[in-house]
Please model this.
Amino acid sequence: MRWSQAFIPTLRDDPADAEAVSHRLLTRAGYIRQLAAGHYSMLPLGQRVRAKIDRIIREEMDRIGGQQFHLPAVHPAEIWKRSGRYQLIGDELFRFKDRKQADNVLGFTHEEIFAMLAGELSSYRDLPQIWYQIQTKFRDEPRPKSGVLRVREFTMKDSYSLDLDWDGLDHSFDRHYDAYRRIFTRLGVTAVDVEASSGAMGGSQSVEFMVRSPAGEDWIVSCPNCDYRANLERAVARLPEVEDQPGELEEFATPEIRTIAALAEAFPALAPPERQIKTLVQVIDDEPALVLMRGDHDLLEQKLIDATGSTRVRPAQADEMRQWLGASAGSLGAVGVEQLTVIADHALEGRRGMVTGANKDDFHFRGVDVARDIKVDKWADLRTVEAGEACVRCGSPVEVWRGIEVGHIFKLGTKYSELMGAYVQDEKGESRPVVMGSYGIGLERNMAAIVEASHDERGIIWPESVAPYRVVVTALRVDDPATMSAAENLYRLLREAGVETLIDDRPERPGEKFADAELIGIPWRVTVGPKGVAAGTAELTRRAGLSTEEIALTDVVNRLAEGGLS
Ligand code: ATP
Ligand code: MG
Model:
């Protein structure tokens, strides 16, 4: 491609409101343009990178026996009602009516439709199958942000494994795990696998692949000493024992005290935060409940959702609290509460001598024995793990860091096959629901994650596997016929050798050309100028590290042709 004819609209300045590096660089370097929040156009360079990611993913899916499909993006709402997800997914599902006033949705994911297609399988002999597509997904995200890291319209490779039994699923899951490892290696991103919550999808084992980055929206707990790694939504850690001072249950006055910290300050010996019970009034799928945490622990909402199998959780409002408990936040407690469901965090199990609100403004209870005084309906792990806590496996202090979720693999089981009618006959002639797995990778998010992981102050540094072009031939003086003929010659020879090459034939100053080439991140630059041409040489610069060497014009093609790069 000739740069003079290419559409590569580089910008001098960062787009306003762009915090993530990938958002800034992909925009400035002319890869993407925002149409509206969460909707981006892929410009020619961006499209080339995405096509390479697409190809790598396809090759690895085909290697594990995947068969590519392409399903509709518009679905009758009826399908989503049948699986229950029409209600379950809520506002993230794009919905619209067509001219016949029929309800439709835009494809959020495709478990339902693949399971319907799997209904055409009839025998165990047809299994296993791995089906995939690379297609646009639509999600009305509450906060689209960070360029293409979180958008409302994106390309996903989603695949589905179909097996006769759980052993088969384990095998398909492992094959996907291996394929994902190979994909991320080829993309040049360091992605680690972490245990994840199964969330609203329903299923058992769930593993996410995470790239460490400040632009990530997930928090990961990992142990530097062993292989424990989990999404914070699911992570657990060991707590040191607390010594209790049991006592009589007794009400005492706490005028104006409304917070854990204020109570601890007023009664330092009696009520340090770890001896308090935090009482949160939550509305879980429209049902009020009390959620109890240790005073110094924070509730992690996704854990509450997972523990209750609910869809939506929200904190109660002040008037609801007063109506249900007769007091305001700051004086609430679960002692003697019979009428509401009480869900307590494991850290409160067996605790005695605790302090909690008395459901009477300005009063608390002391000497609370959780087993004796509180009717707990459900015990669950609900708390947020913090950095420095002891690893559940080995006891070393854990780290907590931000990550970008670049992929997700997931054992679904038979939920969708049962709902959508995907049954096969087993060896004995009995009808069994197909056991499914579901696996996703976002193409644009991976593109952005590569940039987050691979850039410097001058711009993007693409790994060769996904770079839009491998080489840019930079002609220093387009008005010098000898320079141009040498540059054009290299451009032709490189292309003939199968090297994707861009020739910078624009009448710009060298400094500007270098800056642009560095910004867009082409792995190799061959600089051709009058002095070098007279001596029969060019300069070869590697984008990573910007090391430069002199090279004979006659050696350029050999050096840069496939397999010759080093
Ligand atoms: P997140 O927790 O980030 O919202 P998710 O759990 O909803 O992700 P999945 O449904 O598992 O994501 O989708 C599979 C993959 O699709 C993700 O690993 C990610 O690479 C990509 N992806 C998901 N949502 C988005 C989005 N809004 N924008 C870009 N890529 C996305
Ligand atoms: Mg999501």
User: Anything to note?
Assistant: DSSP finds 16 helices and 33 strands in the chain. The first helix runs from residue 21 to 28. The longest strand covers residues 399-413. The mean pLDDT is 95.
